[in-house]
Every structure is written in structure tokens, then in C-alpha cells.
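Write out the 3D structure for:
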Amino acid sequence: MTTPPEAQAIAERELCGLVTGLAHQIADHVRQRAVTLGLTSAQATALREMTGPMTMRELAERMSCEPSNATFVIDKLEKQSLVERRAHPTDRRAKHLVLTPEGSVLRERLLELLTQESPLAALTPEQQGALQGLLERTVAHP
């Protein structure tokens, strides 16, 4: 039996509202934790996403923003001596973004703060994995 279009539309609207609400909660959580470290939410997001040396384009993709926006954020982090631009090992046209020792320490503190009272903390690791799988499946579906 198929779901009538009206019922399906209502279900999708409600689901979209929940996903949007969760996204806002996570953004607020990141913003609150960032402020305690003297960072903007964009700077905190960049630090969170810097799991190793990467190009500006790679960081922008992880941050879901344009490279020019990531450049602005990295400029600020570089002025705070948290990130350095280094020569890329295989592409002389590109730069690698690398955390400084101070940046690594701050990133670790940030990650600790982000896990405290996270909007996703109400879910078990298994539930978080299931939610991630469902969202990945939905995002991958054209």
C-alpha cells in the first residue's frame, strides 16, 4: 500500500523540521563551545575538520563553504598562530594547511568541549551510527 501524497508531504515536512532543528542545535552547541575558547563558530569548525594537513579546497569541502570563505577563516587562525600554510609536498601550486602545536592543543580542547552535552549525546553510539547511515543514504539518493 502506498502513502497518499498529502500524508507523504506532511511526513516529509515534519522530518525536514526535525533535521533542521537538529542542525540548529548542533550549530548553537558549536557556537557556545567556540566562544569559551575565544573562537568564532567558523574557526571552531575549521579546527574540528583539520584532521591532518590539507589544502584550502579540502578544508572548504569539509566546512561546506566556498574556498574564499575558508581562506578568510584560515587567515584569522594564522594570525593567532594556530595554523600555518606550508608548501604542498606534490603540488607546487598548492599550500598545505597544518596546525601549529598551539593549534593542536586548542583543537583537542575544542573536541573535548564539543562532546560535552552534545545534542547527539542522547543517542547511543549505535543509534548515532544508524542515524548517520540513514542520512548518508538520503543525501546520496538523487
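The radius of gyration is 18 Å.
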